């Protein structure tokens, strides 16, 4: 509380005048003792030395209250009032006793003295109680101060002690957390406006904060940007704590909690969700894998990203084409088939290795990756995130990596499901096309010729029979087509020659010969491999022979040939041979035009001799189910050649 100079002079002057009055009374008493009563001067001085000292101290106290302008107004008023009230109380008691003694006609100084002593005792008791309470309060304040000081010094939050001067928050003290967060020591920050230290140039809302703080409002801000001594912009949560005490120079505290990591995590999480929405729109597992690697490289604080795919029981690093980021262009060697990736894949549990040098067999020095997180992505493989520093992936990076892994698995499952649905839809469309058109046509032909046969045209029965064979072939191909997309049985070692001969026995072969130059075994599903050969043989005979193939008969084997027919010469010869990477099936028929070789495996493709248009499509599906590739080429004699890559 402020006090005007006039009131200060009035308060201090009152005490000084009262002290002078008491001093003058004492000096008058000394004069009478020496001059009237003839008492020795030294005894008079000894008698009145203490009262004179007390009276002069009252005069000095009043002078100090007037001259010391830094004393608070509340202090000046309280001291003056209590001093005068104490004097008035003693005077009143003494006067009360003295007047009664006058009335009684007998003055008893010892009684007056005892009353004064009693009042002094009561005053002493009051002062004692007050002093004890003051000491207890002081001890509590000291303990609270020690706690606050310990909190001020040990908290990780950045705290600045502030005093408002001309509307600006001036720093009086900072804690170690402030020095750690903002990079300013106490000597660098003390006496400077806080805004000048940490408020970025483009921030304009700090004045509104000052108005609220100066009004004594306790408030907070969940998110605001502040600048460190190095110029880095970080994100903080602010708590403004005002002090309403007029005894301290401190007006309040600004408490800043660094939430930069949380803010970055939330931002990365939002970006990750946006990337996930894009992932689920991608149509293939391979494209999802490449997009996931790009998303992880762009969004996560990691030095290395790759995906290890499961392939026939092996874990192989994905090498995406056109990779533009260094973080996954050169996969470290220790990821191929490592126990870390295998363990995470088989257990379905993410595995974080803070220091790869502790893992036996990891090429830590050569790969440059010091720590890594391996996240399983279901049956598709694992996602690997790496850092070049030991324990370089914090909890945020690990959490985001696990979220990405779950989202990638869901996106891959969706892509795989959509691929299966698309394949099923294609087969359904093919079924519908064949049933509605290809089966209906020979059925109509058979019905027409059946009417002619009833009218006596026996030759029409042969045409009915051919129509029935046509429908039978279509039905068999439809049954084979129904198996497309199904996984193959467990592959086993089978002899190519043995399977090919069984397939030849089930294929109509008028004047056709089979030559087998393929010995040895391959890993395959025997039934599906036989079906593959049957479709290739039927395709060669149906589309590779001349228009008039001759009559069919059975059983003629010569020097590696399996041939049927009465004549010595076969209209077409089908050959099977081994290649360095698989096998090939070739015929010496009319061949496939070069412009049609890329489409012969499509559903519905048929050559000049007709056919169901499904045989080679089934061949391609069986090859794909085995993980093989197949392509059509021109044979050495101009016929069709189908090359299978099995390795």
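Sequence proposed for the structure above (647 residues):
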């Amino acid at each position: 509380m402020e006090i005007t100079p006039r009131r200060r002079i009035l308060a201090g002057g009152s005490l000084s005048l009262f002290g002078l009055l008491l001093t003058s009374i004492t000096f008058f008493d000394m004069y009478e003792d020496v001059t009237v009563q003839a008492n020795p001067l030294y005894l008079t001085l000894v008698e009145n030395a203490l009262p004179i000292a007390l009276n002069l101290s009252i005069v000095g106290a009043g002078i100090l209250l007037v001259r010391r302008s830094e004393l608070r107004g509340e202090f000046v008023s309280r001291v003056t009032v209590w001093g005068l009230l104490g004097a008035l109380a003693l005077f009143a008691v003494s006067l009360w006793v003295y007047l009664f003694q006058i009335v009684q006609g007998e003055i008893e100084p010892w009684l007056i003295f005892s009353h004064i002593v009693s009042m002094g005792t009561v005053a002493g008791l009051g002062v004692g109680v007050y002093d004890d309470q003051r000491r207890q309060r002081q001890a509590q304040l000291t303990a609270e101060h020690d706690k606050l000081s310990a909190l001020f010094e040990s908290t990780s939050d950045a705290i600045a002690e502030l005093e408002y001067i001309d509307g600006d928050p001036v720093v009086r003290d900072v804690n170690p957390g402030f020095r750690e967060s903002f990079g300013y020591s106490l000597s660098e920050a003390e006496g400077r406006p806080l805004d000048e230290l940490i408020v970025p140039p483009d921030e304009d809302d700090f004045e509104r904060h000052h108005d609220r703080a100066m009004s004594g409002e306790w408030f907070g801000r969940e998110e605001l940007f502040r600048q460190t001594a190095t110029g880095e912009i970080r994100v903080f949560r602010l708590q403004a704590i005002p002090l309403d005490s007029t005894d301290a120079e401190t007006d309040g505290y600004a408490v800043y909690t660094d939430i930069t990591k949380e803010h970055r995590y939330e931002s990365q999480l939002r970006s990750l969700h946006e990337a996930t929405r894009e992932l689920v729109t991608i149509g293939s597992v391979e494209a999802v894998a490449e997009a996931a690697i790009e998303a992880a490289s762009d969004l996560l604080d990691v030095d290395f990203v790759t995906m290890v795919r499961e392939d026939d029981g092996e874990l192989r690093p994905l090498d995406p084409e056109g990779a533009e980021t260094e973080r996954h262009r050169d996969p470290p060697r220790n990821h191929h088939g490592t126990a870390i990736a295998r363990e995470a894949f088989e257990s379905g549990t993410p595995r974080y290795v803070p220091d790869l040098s502790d893992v036996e067999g990891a090429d830590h020095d050569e790969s440059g990756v010091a720590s890594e997180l391996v996240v399983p992505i279901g049956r598709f493989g694992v996602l690997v995130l790496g850092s070049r520093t030991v324990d370089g992936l914090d909890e945020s990076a690990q959490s985001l990596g696990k979220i990405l892994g779950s989202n990638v698995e869901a996106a891959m499952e969706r892509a795989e499901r959509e691929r299966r649905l698309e394949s099923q839809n294609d087969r359904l469309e093919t079924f519908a096309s064949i049933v509605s058109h290809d089966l209906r046509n020979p059925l109509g032909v058979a019905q027409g010729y059946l009417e002619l046969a009833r009218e006596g045209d026996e030759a029409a029965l042969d045409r009915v029979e051919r129509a029935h064979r046509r429908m039978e072939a279509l039905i068999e191909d439809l049954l084979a087509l129904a198996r497309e997309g199904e996984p193959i049985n467990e592959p086993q070692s089978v002899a190519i020659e043995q399977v090919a001969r069984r397939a030849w026995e089930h294929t109509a072969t008028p004047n056709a010969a089979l030559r087998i130059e393929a010995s040895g075994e391959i890993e395959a599903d025997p039934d599906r491999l036989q079906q593959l050969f049957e479709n290739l043989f039927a395709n060669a005979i149906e589309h590779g022979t001349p228009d008039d193939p001759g009559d069919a008969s059975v059983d003629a084997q010569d020097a590696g040939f399996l041939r049927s027919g009465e004549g010595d010469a076969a209209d077409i010869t089908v050959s099977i041979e081994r290649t360095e990477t698989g096998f090939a099936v070739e015929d010496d028929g009319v061949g496939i035009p070069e412009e049609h070789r890329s489409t012969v495996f499509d559903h519905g493709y048929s050559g000049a001799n007709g056919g169901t248009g499904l045989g080679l499509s089934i061949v391609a599906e069986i090859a794909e189910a085995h993980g093989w590739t197949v392509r059509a080429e021109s044979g050495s004699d101009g016929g069709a050649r189908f090359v299978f890559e099995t390795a």
